[in-house]
Amino acid sequence: MAIIVAKFGGTSVADVERIENAADKIKREVERGNKVAVVVSAMSGVTNRLVGYCDAISKLQDLREYDTVVAAGEQITAGLMALALQKRGIGARSWMGWQIPFKTTEMHGKARITDIDPTEILKRMEEDEVAVIPGFQGVTERNRISTLGRGGSDTSAVAMAAALNADRCDIYTDVDGVYTTDPRIVPKARKIKKISFEEMMELASLGAKVLQTRSVEIAAKKKVAMQVLSSFEDRIGSDLPGTLIVKEEKIMEEQLVSGIACSRNEAKITFIGVKDQPGAASKIFTPLSEAGVSVDMIVQNISHDGQLTDMTFTVGRSELTRALDAIEKAGIECEEVRSADNVAKISIVGIGMISNSGVAGTMFEVLSDKGINIEVISTSEIKVSVLIDEEYAELAVRALHTAYGLDAAV
Ligand code: ASP
Ligand code: MG
Q1: Contact, 104 vs 138, CB < 8 A?
Q2: What structural domains and CATH numbers belong to the chain?
Q3: What are the pLDDT digits (tens) for 157-169?
Q4: Is the peptide bond preceding residue 101 cis, with omega within 30 degrees of 0?
Q5: What tens digit of pLDDT does each residue of 203-243 get?
Q6: Residue 157 burial (10 A CB sphere; 0-12, 13-18, 19+)
Q7: What is the mean pLDDT of residues 178-207?
Q8: Residues within 5 Å of ion ligand 2 by Cβ?
Q9: Residue 42: CB within 6 Å of ligand 1?
C-alpha cells in the first residue's frame, strides 16, 4: 500500500467527461490498494474568466476580494470530482482549503503555505475515504481566503503530499511529461525522462508552464518524489513513462543544457538618469516589494559622469500596472521612467554548466548569428537568461535547441 497524491490540472478536468475520466484513474489507483488524496484545479479557462471579472471592475483591486473570487473555480471541481468518485462506489468527500486547513501567509494573490494539518484526512484515509482537495486555496491567519498564485494547485498537491508523507505526487496534465522546450515552438523537442529538482525549479520559474516553481521547491526540500504525466493516456501512475523529478545523483545521462525556457510574461522598466549613489536601488525596489511586485532581472549601467546612471529591470507582465503605480507614488528622482512589455526572456538550463565553461558563450554566439540583440542578461550556477525583443523569441529558442544538441532525431 502506498499513499499517493494525484493532482489533475485544468485541462484534465475541463468538463464533466474529463472529470469522469480522471475519476476512473483514481478508482484504479484505489483498486490497487493505494490510499489516494486528489487535488484538483479549476476547469480550464475558469480561473482566467474569474480574473477577468475582477480586472473589469478594477485593475488595482483589493487582493483579498480577488482571492475570494478566483478561489471559487477549484471549489466547483472538487465537489464534482467527489460526486464522480461516489458514483463509482468510492467513499469520497471534498475539503475546502479553509476546512483542512491550508494555512498561508497574508500575501494575497500569491500566498505561501505555512502549515497543513493532515490529521483528519489521514484518519479518513484509514477508513478508505478519498479526500478531494481544491488546489490553489488557503486561509490566512486573519481567516481570509487566500490563493497561492497562478498555477498554485501544483504547490497544494506537493505540500499535501509532504504533509501526508506520501510515496508519490503524480501531476496529471495535458502533456505526457516535461520537454526540452515547448513543443509548440520546437516540434523536435524531446521528452525528458528524469530531471533534477534544481533544473526543474529553474525551468519552472523561467516560464516552462508545466509546474509551478514553488511546488518543485517544496518537493526538493521535503523530498517528495514527483511525476508529471498525461491524464489523456489510458494508464495510471507509476506505469506511465512520464517525467520523474528526482535528486541530481539519480540522473545518469548528463547534457550540458537540459532545457530551454521561453517566457513572454515579462515587462521591462527602465529608470533613466537616477542618482549614482548609495540607497538609489533601495529607493526603487523597496516600494515595489511593498506593493507585492516581484522583480526579476536587474541591470545597472555604470555612470559616465559619476552622477547619473540608468537602471533596467523586469517584472511580471501582469504586475506592470501595479509596479508603475508604486513607482509613481514613491516619487523617485530621475529623468524618465520607461516601460515596455514586448520583451521575452529566453533561458538555457543545465546542471552540466557547473563543470563546463563556454556554455554561455555559445548562447551569445547563436543569438548574434541570428542578428538578435540582447537587452539584459542574468545568470545563476545552472542557467543563463537573456531578455530579447519578443518578436524573435521563437527564432531564438529554435536556434538554441539545435545548437545544444537537443533536437530529437527524426
Ligand atoms: N486554477 C488556478 C490557475 O489557473 C490554479 C491552478 O490551476 O493551478 O492558475
Ligand atoms: Mg498548472
Answers
A1: yes
A2: 3-249 (3.40.1160.10), 260-403 (3.30.2130.10)
A3: 999 999 999 999 9
A4: yes
A5: 988 877 789 999 999 999 999 999 999 998 876 666 667 89
A6: buried
A7: 91
A8: 9, 151
A9: yes
